[in-house]
Design brief:
- The chain is of the alpha/beta class.
- It folds into two domains: 146 residues, Rossmann fold (3-Layer(aba) Sandwich), CATH 3.40.50; 142 residues, no CATH class.
- The protein is built from 14 helices and five strands.
- Helices cover 59% and strands 7% of the residues.
């Protein structure tokens, strides 16, 4: 039987906890770890094992859950900078419904550390969960506002994936060690991102374009705007293969719906997944660029081409912009403001 956890690297203690939990799961789990640590992948794989347990066709349940298409695996991602009250209401509503195909329902709430106004409502359903509903939540940290939510969950710690582990995984997969080192640095500790970059021949060009920004930015609005246009064009090109795959998946869905006489079957679920994947890819691309730019500035400070106070201020601005990008800020506006204020 397929092991859903196979291939997850750098999280051996966490995966051991989850393996042991499959046979007798508790009502709610909170995965805590930095962005890119693999918590989302682990959550999806854990849900796959939970939904497959005791079923007559476990492989089908696993396949659908891993693809985020299982009717009893419901994913909630924030639509803006925080999980909204409306989303929390929907979480409560869905939690109270019966499973469709499995003997349980798994609700996955991502970025619960950003559940500000919605936290009390989420807490209520965690305190009195339906017997057939399990919760998996992820958070990068535990702020005061969700401390009570955390106390209602079984906490599973995830560590940052080290560049060394990423490099070795990429080398095993066939990448040249020198390229693997660059990719590991660009991936910000994310194995999924590293794997994608390893298959992307233009990834190095995008990394270099960000690294060389200090040679084209002069503090003017025009140079900032030109650099933003160029980089966003490259980001658009990087998303093209994913959008092509999405178009093919939509076409395949329409063909299946036509064959079975149910037009629109699963359309909303597929479109929602496509939006999530595209948003994640664009965010990952921009964070990779911020990493490249930050590394270039750090090297400039080390070799004396950038004075330390200016370098320190610039790195702080980049860190702040990276957080704003994670919260789905306006890409163009954020980048223009950052590039115009950097002192390089």
């Amino acid at each position: 039987m397929t092991d859903s956890f196979e291939g997850i690297i750098g999280q051996r203690p966490a995966i051991s906890v989850l393996r042991n939990a499959v046979s007798a799961p508790l009502p709610a789990y909170l995965f805590v770890g930095p962005s890119g640590c693999g918590a989302r992948t682990a959550a999806t794989r854990f849900a796959a094992e939970l939904l497959a347990a005791g079923s007559e066709d476990p492989e089908r349940h696993k396949r659908l859950a891993i693809a985020e298409e299982h009717p009893d695996f419901i994913l909630f991602e924030r639509n803006g900078p925080a999980l909204s009250v409306d989303q929390a209401k929907e979480i409560v509503r869905v939690a109270m419904t019966s499973p469709y195909e499995s003997n349980r329902k798994v609700i996955f709430v991502e970025d619960v550390h950003l559940a500000f106004s919605s936290a009390p409502m989420i807490l209520k359903v965690l305190e009195e969960p339906p017997p057939t509903t399990l919760f998996i939540l992820t958070a990068e940290e535990i702020p005061v506002g969700i401390a009570t939510i955390a106390s209602r969950c079984t906490r599973v710690e995830f560590e940052p994936i080290s560049p060394k582990e990423l490099v070795e995984q990429l080398v095993v997969s066939g990448a040249e060690r020198e390229n693997a080192a660059m990719i590991a640095e660009a991936a910000n500790g994310s194995i999924d991102r590293a794997t994608l970059l390893a298959s992307d021949e233009a990834a190095l060009d995008r990394w270099n374009a960000w690294s060389e920004l200090q040679s084209v930015l002069d503090g003017s609005g025009s140079s900032a705007a030109e650099a933003v246009d160029r980089l966003l064009t490259m980001v658009d090109a990087a998303t093209a293969p994913l959008q092509h795959r999405h178009e093919q998946e939509s076409k395949d869905l329409d063909e299946r719906a036509e064959r079975f006489g149910e037009r629109g079957l699963g359309r909303r679920s597929l479109e929602d997944r496509h939006k999530r994947e595209l948003r994640r890819l664009r965010t990952d691309e921009l964070l990779m660029g911020m990493t490249a730019l930050g590394n270039a500035i750090s090297k400039g400070v080390t070799n004396g081409s950038i004075d330390p106070p200016s370098g320190s201020r610039s790195l702080a601005l980049i860190a702040s912009a990276s957080q704003d990008i994670r919260r789905n800020g306006n890409e163009r506006l954020l980048m223009q403001r950052l590039f115009a204020t950097l002192k390089l």
